[in-house]
């Protein structure tokens, strides 16, 4: 803490709320900011305020957006029958960057984790059910990481959708495209062997 | 860039101005902020605005401070005849944390670096001269790092103060106190041998 300037001391304290910013980094960051041109620093502060005020989850798909409903839910050029279920808004950015998917999204907000006490009501399963009642979806793509929590979530949703007469798919698992087999872990290799396909 | 929320996209762009924050880190940080409680995020933004508005260099010693003159320049309990010359406000925090020095400070703002074009006028040498004219200083401690730029600065200031009839000192150099000699570099060891002192 910096006893000669309360405002600098407070800034340092606030910056420590950021992820992986400890006391020393917060001090460095505070000094960096205080030495920048005033208009640049004020622009940063303003962008924080604007984002926290304007950017909210879409009431239909829960994508973080400045408009409600979001631009994807209201885009008439997108396929309305394919729904891509993801963990977070960030996954949507990743998928959109491939230009491969032109349907709708639904953001779960989290993955099931019995260990951390995250159950179906913490991950928008009820909201997903409502979405599927309101919209005519024929295929649900579970674009969820094949991690422990991801697999749990994928199997839970697949089970829950079983009787709803929809095609349920998930992203392909295997050796990362373009990578070297030598550096692939045993679990990935085993999975890739089991999922081998004709050339 | 995030095309579904202009405010999030702008926040990400602004966060990239921070040191060692690239595009990916800025995205992570933006999502982190947007998912925090609103009052916490607004408090952070406010602390940035308050600091950049209130925290300014003291007009006497150039310490970053909310008051002018700063609390050190106006502290009657501090020795007025010993001046500690440092590179930055952060060095003052370090020195203050030792509780070893009870005099006044002067912040140069930078170190001489002919390679980067930083000359005496970029590092408050004229301001230091004015300070010494106004105040009765008997000892000037050059508390500056023994780096290339630091050594250049130390020798420049020592030369410039030569005829002013003041005691000029610098911080001791040698093997870091409490460390293992085995891990000391050759330059440090050579310096320590030359500066050996009676036990």
Number of H- or I-type helical stretches of chain A: 7
Q: What is the general shape of chain A? A: globular
Beta strands of chain A, count: 6
Helix-strand sequence of chain A: HHHEEEHEHEHEH
Average residue-wise pLDDT of chain A = 91
Q: What share of the residues of chain A lie within helices?
A: 40-55%
- Oligomer designation: homodimer
Strand content of chain A: 5-15%
The secondary structure category of chain A is: alpha/beta
Most extensive interface between two protein chains, with residue counts: A-B, 54 and 54 residues
Please compute the radius of gyration of chain A using only Cα atoms: 22 Å
Low-confidence stretches of chain A: none
Give the strand order of the largest sheet of chain A, numbering strands 1, 2, ... along the chain: 4-3-5-6
User: What gap, in angstroms, lies between the N and C termini of chain A?
Assistant: 64 Å
Biggest sheet features of chain A: 4 strands, parallel
Brief sketch in words of this structure:
The structure is a homodimer of 199-residue chains. Chain A is of the alpha/beta class and 199 residues long.
Annotate the secondary structure layout:
2 copies of one chain form a homodimer.
Chain A: H1 6-15, H2 23-34, H3 38-54, E1 56-57, E2 64-65, E3 82-86, H4 89-96, E4 104-107, H5 125-134, E5 139-142, H6 148-161, E6 167-170, H7 186-194
Parallel strand pairs in A: 3-4, 3-5, 5-6
Antiparallel strand pairs in A: 1-2
Describe this structure in words.
The structure is a homodimer of 199-residue chains. Chain A is α/β, with parallel strands linked by helices. Chain A has helices spanning 6-15, 23-34, 38-54, 89-96, 125-134, 148-161, 186-194, and strands at 56-57, 64-65, 82-86, 104-107, 139-142, 167-170. The longest helix of chain A has 17 residues, at 38-54. Chain A is globular and about 70 Å long. The model of chain A has no long low-confidence stretch (mean pLDDT 91). Chains A and B meet through helix 1, helix 2, helix 3, strand 2 and helix 4 of A and helix 1, helix 2, helix 3, strand 2 and helix 4 of B.
């Amino acid at each position: 803490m910096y006893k000669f300037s309360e405002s600098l001391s407070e800034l340092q304290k606030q910056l420590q709320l950021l992820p992986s910013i400890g006391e020393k980094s917060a001090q460095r960051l505070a000094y960096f900011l205080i030495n920048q041109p005033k208009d640049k620093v004020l622009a940063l502060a303003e962008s924080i305020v604007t984002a926290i005020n304007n950017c909210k989850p879409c009431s239909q798909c829960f994508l973080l957006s400045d408009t409600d409903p979001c631009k994807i839910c209201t885009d008439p050029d997108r396929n309305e029958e394919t729904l891509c279920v993801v963990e977070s808004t960030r996954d949507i950015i990743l998928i959109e960057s491939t230009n491969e998917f032109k349907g709708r999204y639904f953001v779960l907000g989290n993955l099931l984790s019995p260990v951390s006490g995250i159950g179906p009501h913490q991950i928008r399963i009820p909201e997903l059910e409502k979405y599927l009642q309101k919209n005519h979806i024929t295929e649900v793509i579970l674009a969820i990481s094949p991690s422990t929590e991801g697999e749990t979530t994928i199997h839970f949703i697949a089970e829950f959708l079983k009787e709803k007469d929809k095609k349920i798919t998930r992203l392909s698992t295997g050796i990362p495209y373009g990578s070297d087999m030598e550096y692939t872990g045993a679990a990935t290799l085993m999975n890739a062997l089991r999922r081998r396909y004709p050339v």
